[in-house]
Amino acid sequence: MMEPLFLHPVMQEKIWGGTRLREEFDYVIPSETTGECWAISAHPNGVSTVVNGAFAGWGLDQLYAQHRELFGNSESPVFPLLTKILDANDWLSVQVHPDDTYGLAHEGELGKTECWYVIAADEGAEIIYGHQAQSKEDLAAQIQAGNWEDLLTRVPVKAGDFFFVPSGTMHAIGKRILILETQQSSDTTYRVYDFDRRDDQGNLRELHIQQSIDVTTIGQPANSHPDKQIIGNLATTTFVSNPFFTVYQWEVTGPVEMKKVADYYLVSVLDGQGQVTVGEQTYPLQKGQHFILPSTVTSWKFDGQLHLIASHP
User: Fold this and answer.
1) Is 97 labelled as part of a ligand binding site?
2) Cross-strand bridge partners of residue 131
3) Active-site option among 191, 197, 198, 205
């Protein structure tokens, strides 16, 4: 099977969501508080569906289970990555994710190391990225005291910024930010602070204070250092490469021929339009599409004006 796998995403409503997924990407959204587009996902809480070719109608989870040869015969029991686009119309909760050891022991699923590419951000937008506590005891005391202003590290953000968010990093995406997130396939989140918000039933959302203290690392997170290379019509920025994933930005400005250096790729079209040719077949590409280049695809050609984010395990 020599073809890319185009995917239909799953939309998730969130208390902090908005309408930018519709405005920016023309997605059909379920409500005016749609927070997440699970674009490439085999996670049981939101499975993407193949829309083209021999496997049209298959869930990505089913495809991964039954046709591992499309994914380099990966030994991971679950599809390892999840690509999302997040519309933070308001602040997300201040949260932290466990590592694999803690996640598997306490939640029965992988931990979550993730990273963010900022697609758009309003003037003055900021995130929380790390904390100022000097020890676990200090962390617990400041959380107990509700000393959020001194504890949390705020960082201004703009379109084009990239942040690596390893498990154990205390973090929050701020309001009016649109982000592409590449993460381990996990839905485990420990909320440490939620700005005392209430849900539509008037209840405070659940917090996970002890788990948060358990898994939060001490010391400021170290962001990655992007590396950019330009060859012909392709500018490749390698944002991060670690044991969980490698994430690239591909900026295409004309015909480009590429050969695979990984088992398979997850690709999202963030802007522009063009095409990808695999073998004899050409597929049109436009903003908001997401696809996988499986192991059976060893080379391909892009053409057009395209802004792509790609990743692989």
Assistant:
1) yes
2) 152
3) 191
Residue 191: active-site member: yes
| 149 has binding-site annotation | no
d(CA 235, CA 139): 42
The rounded average pLDDT for each run of 10 residues, N- to C-terminus, in the chain (313 residues) is 94 97 98 98 98 97 98 95 98 96 95 98 98 97 96 98 98 98 97 90 91 95 95 98 97 98 98 97 98 97 98 97
Domain CATH for 279:
2.60.120.10
Backbone phi and psi for residue 153, each to the nearest 5 degrees, phi listed first: -95, 115
The three-state secondary structure class of 168 is coil
Contact between residue 193 and residue 93 where contact means Cβ atoms under 8 Å apart:
yes
Cα Rg of the chain (Å, integer): 20
Give dist(CA 191, CA 102) in Å, integer.
16
pLDDT recorded at residue 200 = 80
Q: 184 and 44 in one domain?
A: yes
171 is an annotated ligand-binding site residue: yes
